[in-house]
Structure formats: C-alpha cells, structure tokens
Amino acid sequence: MASSRVLLFFSSFLAVSISPIAADEADSKEAVVSLDSSNFSATVSKYNFIVVKFSPRCGRCKKLDLEVRKCGHCNKLYLVVRKCGHCNKLDLEYEKAASILSSNDPPVILAKVDANEEANKGLASEYDVKGFPTIKIIRNGGKSIQEYKGPREADGIVTYLKKQSGPASVEINSADDATTIVGEKKIVVVGVFDKFFGEEYEKFLALAQKLRSDYEFGHTLDAKHLPRGDSSVTGPVVRLFKPFDECFVDFKEFNAEALEKFIEESSLPVVTEFNNDPDNHRFVIKFFNGPNDKVMLFLNFNSDAADAFKLKYSEVAEKYKGEGISFLVGDLKASQGSLQYFGLKDDQVPPIIKVLKKDQVPLIIIHTNDGQKFMTQHLEPDHISYRVQEYMEMKKLDVAVRDIESESNLKTLEGIPMKKKGARKSFVTELIGALAFWRKEDGSGESDKQEKDEEEMPESEARIDQHINNPDLQMSTLTLTAPV
C-alpha cells in the first residue's frame, strides 16, 4: 500500500514536471490564450492583430527553486515554477488586461508562450526573445511584428493596445477630440494639413504606421482645434506635443528621414528622470533605446543634496542639447533590479547600473554608443560640468580610443593599472592622453621637455607620458568600467 502511494506521488510529479502549471491557472479559465510551437503559426495567421508575451525565466527567476504543491480540491500534486516579483507582477497585470480587452469591440487577443519549454525555444529565437519577458505585437497574420513599448500595468496595457489596434493616425475634428487625443501626459504627433491627400499627407501616414508603437499620431484640417501653438497655421506642418520642456514644437520639413529624426529628438526630455513614477518609464525605455551617447547620474532622491544635483545636471544637459548626447538622472532605489522589467536588453544597459550600491552614489556614468563606459563615484554638484566637458572635448577631437596597441607595457597612471602588450588600453588612459595632447596643441598647456626619446614611444604612450610629467595638465582620476 505504501509503495502504491509512493508510485502515485512520482507519477503525479512526473506528469506535472513535463507540463508545469500553477494552481490558480488550473482552477480558472484564462483570458490569455496559451500558445506553443504546435499551434502558434495557425493561431497567429487568423488574426490581423494579436499580442504575444514570451516568458522565459529571467536571471532572478532562475535563482529560485522549483516547488511541489498539493491541490486543495483534488489533492493532486503539481509543480510550481517560481518566478521573481517583477515577472509575477507582469503576469498578473497581463492577465487583467486580457480579461478587459476580451470584451472590447472588436476583442483584442492577448496570448502567451512559455519560452522555457524546449519545444518553444525555436519560437523564442525567431522572435528575438532573451532572458526576460518580451511582448510582441503581431499584425496581418504574422506579416508585421513590432516590439511592445507601452506600460506594464493593466490599465496602461489596455489603453495602449486599444490605440495600437486602431488606425495609425486619428482624425481630429474638434477641440474635444484634440483634448482627448493630446491630453496632458503624453507625446502626441499631429499633422496639420489643408487637405487629406497629397505627398506630405501620405508621408505623414506612412511614418505614423512605422512609429505607431512608440508614439500616438493625429491629423487635422484646422490648427484652431489644437490646445497649444499657433492656431493660424494652415499646414502642412507637424506639431509634436509633449509633457515636458517647451510642451510643443513645430516642424515643416516632410523629408521622411528628417521628420523621423525630429520626432525622435524632440520626444525625449532634456533630462530623463528614472524614479517610481510609471509615467516616466516610457521615457526611460526610450532613453536606453536611443542612438545617442548617454550620461547617467544616480543619487538618492531623498538626500538633502538631491535638488542641487538636479539643478546643476539640468544646466549641463541644456548646454549640450542637440549634440548627440542624452542625459538621465536616476533614483538609486528605483534603478535597482527594475530595468529588465521595462523590457530592456542586457546590452542596452551598462552592467554597473544593475548592481548600484548606496556607498557609490552620487555616481555619474558616461556610456558611449560604441560601448565604452567610464564612471566617477562620490562626486559633488560642481563636478558634473567638468566631467561632461572632459568627455565632449575628447569627442570633438574624434580621437580613436579603441584598439590602440602598445609595443611595451605602460606605467600605472594615478592608481589605474595598464594592460599588457597586445591588449586594449584602458579607456581612461586613452581619454587622459588625448585630452593632454589636445590642450598642448591648443596652447593652454605649457611646453614641457621630455627627457625620454618620444620617437621610440607609441603616440598614445607619448601623450600619456606628457600628462604624467606636466602638472599643468593634471586631471582627477576617473574610475572605469573598462571595455573588454
């Protein structure tokens, strides 16, 4: 009898191990459609619009043990694949949104794929799913695939997907229409035209379709309906509304590339704020997805010095506006462990941000668009301008800071050990050397006589040696997240 119970236990355990399911999922009817490799293509091909959440176990989930539980109704055993707080929260919010959207007219279908299953790993690879929950919007039976770039709480998901399932641009016929579409907390792009046909209008609609997952679009024949800006314009003109900085900006060039660049650049705050406000999260995602070099300041928003840091940082960001560099200020608490929850990939975020500690802030990090990173800890408000200026000087010189090979080992510079022959040099070393050389050429540093024969030294080493031996060119040490 005992052996029978043991056999029953392992039989039940084996069955649920092959197809893991949570208790509440087994006992309730799901609003989210479950897909796998056997029914994915057939299901997707039936819909003009379907949303699919791929759910691999993220890095945090993988650290959690599997758990065996007993059903309270039938006493059967089942295996629970435990998830971290962020993944659990997204599952719940996604399920709530699916329940609401199933009653929409027409219904919006939300589906999910368990990317942990071996049979589904081909799907995950095809849709570029990495080690975190990824949501895709699939249109026209699978012919068009877009990243989901909306909120991750139920109400936000519902609002975002209702708009995504409709036309790419909505006609504005009244002030009430404009108030509903533009609102106070959104980025909305509105085209003002004197007629709804012609080359400019068609280019606008094509761009709206291309960028619809990132922005909301509208079009009107009368600028008087719009809440802000010159009401006398007759078009064609594009007016971008935003809940920050100057609140709106107009653009009259209808070259597709120029118009897209205008929208991308105008829709990011001068300083993106990373805190616990859900309204800011879309700007955080956009910041990390953007092509610019990135300056990131992390501090404790509750500290006495927080306002002073933010003020100085905003002044610096305004100074370098439009120069290919973006600025973010982040609250230490908000940034810890939450970036993947927003759908950001590992290679989009400097690894140091994921493990920030209280004893490192205030901390500034510069992350270049070619992967170079360096940082300074424990800075003061007045240091911000100096740090950014250092980097911008180097950038203007277009100094090659990568793949510099040395014929011999370099000295240790201000406590930073140099790498050996054949290895890439420290980014900080190259930066300091380049700046020292620039200041000499610019005439701001005194001419110094080197006792060493510089003709026998590589150019980069000669520049660094100039820096070491010239007190007029001394700069404080930067702590580096070095390229590999």
What order do the helices and strands come in, and which of them pair?
Elements: H1 2-18, H2 23-27, E1 33-35, H3 40-44, E2 49-54, H4 59-62, E3 67-70, E4 77-80, H5 85-101, E5 109-113, H6 121-126, E6 134-139, E7 144-147, H7 154-164, E8 169-171, H8 175-182, E9 188-192, H9 199-211, E10 216-220, E11 237-241, E12 248-251, H10 256-266, E13 271-274, H11 278-289, E14 293-299, H12 306-319, E15 325-331, H13 332-335, H14 351-354, E16 363-367, E17 373-377, H15 383-397, H16 427-442, H17 459-469, E18 479-481
Parallel strand pairs: 1-5, 2-5, 8-10, 9-10, 13-15, 14-15
Antiparallel strand pairs: 2-6, 3-4, 6-7, 9-11, 11-12, 14-16, 16-17, 17-18
Helix pairs in contact: 5-7, 15-16, 16-17
How would you characterize this protein structure?
The chain has 484 residues and is α/β, with parallel strands linked by helices. It is 36% helix and 18% strand. It has 17 helices and 18 strands. It has helices at 2-18, 23-27, 40-44, 59-62, 85-101, 121-126, 154-164, 175-182, 199-211, 256-266, 278-289, 306-319, 332-335, 351-354, 383-397, 427-442, 459-469; strands spanning 33-35, 49-54, 67-70, 77-80, 109-113, 134-139, 144-147, 169-171, 188-192, 216-220, 237-241, 248-251, 271-274, 293-299, 325-331, 363-367, 373-377, 479-481. The strands form 4 sheets. The chain has a 6-stranded mixed beta sheet with strand order 13-15-14-16-17-18. A 5-stranded mixed beta sheet has the order 1-5-2-6-7. It has a 5-stranded mixed beta sheet with strand order 8-10-9-11-12, with helices on both faces. Helix 9 (199-211) links the parallel strand 9 (188-192) and strand 10 (216-220). The chain is globular, with a radius of gyration of 28 Å. The chain starts with a helix and ends with a strand.
